[in-house]
Amino acid sequence: TPLSNCERRFLLRTIEERKRLDGRQCYDYRNVRISFGADYGCCIVELGKTRVLAQVSCELVPPKPSRPTEGILFFNLELSPMAAPGFEPGRQSELLVNLNRLIERCLRNSKCIDTESLCVVAGEKVWQIRLDLHLLNHDGNIIDAASIAGIVALCHFRRPDVSVQGEEVTVYAPEERDPVPLSIHHMPICVSFAFFQQGTYLLVDPSEREEGVMDGVLVIAMNKHREICTIQSSGGIMLVKDQVLRCSKITAVKVAEITELIQKALENDQKVRKEGGKFGFAESIPNQKITAFKMESAAVDTNNVEEQAEEIITKADPPSEVFAKPILHTPGTAQIGEGIENSWGELEESEKEEAAEEERETEVAAFECQEMETEDTSTMRETKMDEPIVLSDSEEEEVVILEPQELPKKTRTQTSSKQETTNKKAFNKRRKKKRAA
């Protein structure tokens, strides 16, 4: 996601002050969590919020003509829109190509796996080991999480046992014979370093936001024997020899810690499988390690809250309306003061007045609309009265138009006067009859 100019300036300023958003120091590494699946060779590695799923599979295939006695290693990393909205499905971006090349150089070119032990019949059948890495969530430093997940999955994987009798090759199921682990010489692990302001500032294990601000990155792959397997620098920066040496020393410390963590995780998983307890993702789901990101609870000490509050308030010179004594509601929470009176009362009254004025305006507008509608209906009625009446059943029949014939004004006045005289005579006759009675 693109960063705004304000976020960019803020991040660069925090880096200059030797601070990071997640509270780490410059050389601190995020927490690494490893959880295994039910099958061998399946694991999920979490580096902070960056999460990678690794799965190893094997298959009997003919070897390469140039190397008939060596097995085949295949690595594939996928970036899906589930991890970040910027990743497009089915399209190999430049970032994905660079990550795949770096993983191949880290795991294949370093000769960490004995490929000759994967040969079944020279020149005919060898094991092809395939490592699929899938990014589940992206929060920066994909290459470190992918390298850890890849080497953990390879160490955890077990291939089926094979026997050769003459030209017949028999592959045994896990129920018949125990699967065989891969022969791994060493465990190369990548450590990334982000440089800012042309190499002036250095951060270990950059997050997603820090990657959006950095000028360049240096990736060093090393094993616990302090042997550099591969090194790559990208970005528009020029590094000095002292910077590279300092990064290599930091890498040696981090790789030793991560290697020890990986070995402990593998031993614990093997122990649980032998004892028959819960293993795989079934152990991680209740702890919300797979389905959600569970934040660790921060420890809050409320023993000396009153003294600390008084010191803070005296230094801040608060207004007299603020209460200086803190209130302890429950252990672990604290409230200092009850706050100042609400200063938004005037604005609320003005808002009420504005709302009342708007209601009046809407009522007036509705009344005007009703008057307009009544006028329209009256005009329509007048036009209908003046219009001629058309009687027609169909288009083919003749049309008969009945027009109201208007009488002349003289005839109208004469008829009206005659009616008045007849009405008066009838009224007078009734009065005479009543009097006589």
TrEMBL record:
It is found in: Cytoplasm; Nucleus, Nucleolus. Residues 29-160, 186-250 form the Exoribonuclease phosphorolytic domain. The keyword Transport does not apply. Residues 345-364, 370-437 are annotated as: Disordered. Residues 346-361 have a biased composition (Acidic residues). It comes from the Eukaryota. Belongs to the RNase PH family. This is Exosome complex component RRP45. It comes from Psophia crepitans.
